[in-house]
Amino acid sequence: MSLLLRRPLGHEAYPGDVFYLHSRLLERAAKSSSRLGEGTMTALPIVETQSRDVSVYIPTNVISITDGQIFLSADLFNAGIRPAINQGISVSRVGSAAQIKAMKQVA
Fold first, then answer.
1. Per the structure, how many domains does the chain have?
2. Which residue range(s) make up the domain with 45?
3. Are residues 1 and 33 in the same domain?
4. Are residues 72 and 54 in the same domain?
5. CB count, 10 Å around CB of 80?
6. 74 and 41 share one domain
């Protein structure tokens, strides 16, 4: 990929600035309001892995930038479980901050 982009090689032959490129792309999803002094950001980056390996460079790069991940499983889908969300490895960094008081008590 680096050779096609005519950039120096980085990790796993990806461009050395791929982390910067991912974060710049995700920042484009932001909408800020200078009048209100705040903003929001919503992005749904989708990464397809090879052999279900989320520990390789691109998935870990995107995981490190995002606030949570939903992992879908072909095995669950083929077993008729829909949505095919793998709850074991799906995470949220927002956690209890997004839950109402009653939900926190149950959890």
1. 2
2. 1-66
3. yes
4. no
5. 7
6. no
* Beta-bridge partner residues of 91: 69
Statement to judge: residues 3 and 44 lie in one domain: yes
Q: Catalytic pick from 6, 28, 82, 93?
A: 93
Backbone phi, psi, residue 62, to 5°: -70, -40
Structure tokens at 46: 């989708």
pTM of the model: 0.61
The answer to whether 102 touches 83, Cβ cutoff 8 Å, is: no
Catalytic residue flag (residue 93): yes
Q: Are residues 79 and 52 in the same domain?
A: no
Query: Within 10 Å of residue 94's Cβ, how many Cβ atoms?
Result: 10
Looking up tokens 């930038």 gives 65
In angstroms, the CA 53 to CA 58 distance is: 10
Q: Which tokens is 72 given?
A: 């879908």
Please list the pLDDT of the chain residue by residue as tens digits (107 residues): 666 777 777 777 777 777 788 888 888 877 777 776 777 777 888 888 888 888 888 888 888 888 888 999 999 999 999 999 998 888 877 666 767 788 777 76
**83 and 40, same structural domain?**
no
